[in-house]
Every structure is written in C-alpha cells, then in structure tokens.
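re: ur question from yesterday

yeah so i grabbed the chain u mentioned. its 413 aa long if i counted rite. heres the sequnce exactly as i have it in my notes:
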Amino acid sequence: MSLSVDPRPLPPYSSPALSLNHRFGALNTVVERPVWSPSRLESWLKCPRQAWTRQTLNADDDDGVATEDVDVLVRGQLVHQVEAAILAGHGVPLGEEISTTPLPLHVGPMGQEQAGWNAILNFLQRDVHWLGRHNAVSVHRTMDLINATPETWLAHQEGADELPQSGRLARLLEADLALHHAAPVALEWSPTTETERSVLLDTDGGDGEAGLRLFGYADRVDVVVLPDHLHQQLVNEGVLSEEEHDEPFPLHEAPRAAQRLVVIRDLKTVRGPDAATAGLRHMRCLFEDLQLALYARAWEVLHPNDRVVGVGASEVGESTTHYVELDSDLAHVSEGLLVGDVTDVFSQHFPASTQTGATTTPFRRWMAERLIVAQRAVSTAAQGHVHPTPGAHCSYCTVAHSCDVSDYTGGDF
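ran it thru and got these structure tokens back, copy pasting raw so excuse formatting
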C-alpha cells in the first residue's frame, strides 16, 4: 500500500444478519463536535473506540505510572518553553503573530554573542526549579540539558562562574541560529480571528457541505527570507508577486503567485536519535499525523496572500535537526536555502495534479489528501462508529484493560 493512501479510520465489521452490530462498535447516536483539534482527529484515526471512550465518556482507567525520571511530557514542555524564551528575546511573543518585517534569528538580538544562551539560562534559573538538585535524576538531566553538574549550576546562579554553551539545549539554539533563510513570525499560533475562535476548513473542494472547524496550536511558523537573486528568480517564475488576494491560496486548482512563502514546524522531543531513527518522527508527522497539513491550510485560509511551501518536524534530542519537506516549486532553489534539512518524499507518493486533473504540486496534493482523511475521521464519529482498531498503540493505550481486542495488537501504520 502506498504511503499516500491513508485508509484510516478503518471501517467497522458489520453484517445485516447480525443483531449484535452495536457490540462491534455501531452506536444509535452520533458523536459530533462543533470544533475539532488535530489531536482529537488523530485519536479517531488511530482507534475510534479509544477516542470515544476518552473524549465522549471521559473514561480512563490509567491511574498514572510512577516513574523516578522527569516525566516525558514535562521534558517535551521544557523544550517548547526554551524555544519560547529564545523567540521572545527575538521579539516573537508566545501565542502572538508579529506584524513587523520578519528577521532570521541569527541577525536579531539572539544572534549576538551569548544572548541566546543567556536567555536559555535565565529561563532555567527562573522557572525550572528541579534543575541542579542532587538526586540522581536531576543530576542526569542537568548534565543532559546544559552539560553542568549541580555544583557548576549553583556557581553560575550565584554569579561565580560563566556556564559554557553546551548540552542538549545549546544544540537546539545552534540549530535555530542555522536557519538563515527562515524568519520566525509565530510560536504556538492558533487559527483564530477577532470574531471566531476557530477556522472553517473546506476538506473536499466541493460545494462546501463537507468541512470542519479547527482549533489548536501550531508550534512554530516561519516566513522564508530569500536572497535577492532567488527572490527575483521566483518572481520571474510566477511563484512570488506583490498582487493582493482576498481568497486563500488555491488547494484544488492550479497554484498562483503569493506574496510570502511560509514553513510550518512541529517540535518533537525524541530519544537519540541514532542513524536508524533519525528523521523517523518527521516522516510520521507527514504521513501519520494530521496537524502539519491542518495548520498549513488554516494559515493559508487566514492569510490569503501567503503560500505554505514547507512543513516538517524539528527533532530535538541529543542533537536537533529541523527537517522540512519543501514544495517542488522550490526544489530548484532548495540547495541555496538554509531552512532546515530538506527532504523530498512527496514527489514519490503524490501526483502533480488535483483530483479534477488540474496541474498542481505533490505538496499541494498531500495537503488536500490529509484534509480528506481528517474529514473521514469526523464522518466516522458522526456515523456513530466507535469500533476498536487493534494496533501497536494498544501497548500504551490507557483504556486497554477495558477493551477485549487490545491483546490482538498489530504493527504500526
């Protein structure tokens, strides 16, 4: 099966001859929501039974697993908070979209000497109080994050020693500063307006009957800042122009020129990564998750003069890599762009045409297909299909003890 064909949510087993269809996941009532988030939609794709049990019944048989380590969620939040501290020093407040001319990080305040590193250390000293304690977990995590012992961290806090730029968080900063042609304009961006707390996405390009309202938070949004010669080249090719538009960039028709080119990023904390797993989380974001495609389209709907030309996961582990899948309209200039580690997989899985036959790019076709998959999740809930779908996710499902098929786990999607 091609990665471009996502059949989820898998249909329930059903037979007209059976009077027990409700036991296989057929409800007599529908499950509807006025507004959806990417995480809720992804839960319905993975297993409608789990999504229904947790989201509608609010049932959860997970009492929490005790661990001596810093919780994975806490570590993930820490990475987001450190990124917020860096971008706040650059003039990009958390949850807001800047209206000034965007600048790459390395030419702003955070690129001056130790400014970015000092912003990280100031945040850690102010908000991360477990750092530098003498228990084994804190000692290990302090060394991992900033390559410091409790003694050197205490000496830094007291002003006795300067802490050299090192550790996992230092490598995150270095990766951010290396994005010379990507200027951050928003962090934790939500698709809202002055009058609406969500945005309506047309998921089929038809008469507007199919669609969903989306709310959530995109981790990071960048505008591509091109060197003058590349900017002029894309103007000559009809990719860029100063023309104003009232309608969003076309998704189901041939592309037109845009004023700005945008990249949507998702920050992911990963283990390692080693050679076998590097880039794997990025691929899952492209082919298994929904949020990159949904936020990309939401940005275009709310910014008619913009075109999203890149999406990707920023894998933050022992090293940080900003992966980005670029639109093929930029393929011929990608070697001269420092916007992250560029991948090229959509051209191998998606045709360069819309479902109606109009010429487009594989990137645009991917976005359209992911919207269709999201609509399928909404339709599954609306039809009252809450059937269990066993898979690798059963091994960490918090309602597995209440599910008769959780023992029949399969592989990943």
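noticed a couple things. The beta strands are 182-189, 199-202, 211-214, 218-224, 260-269, 306-316, 320-326, 341-343. also Residues 9 and 380 are 7 Å apart (CA to CA).
anyway ttyl
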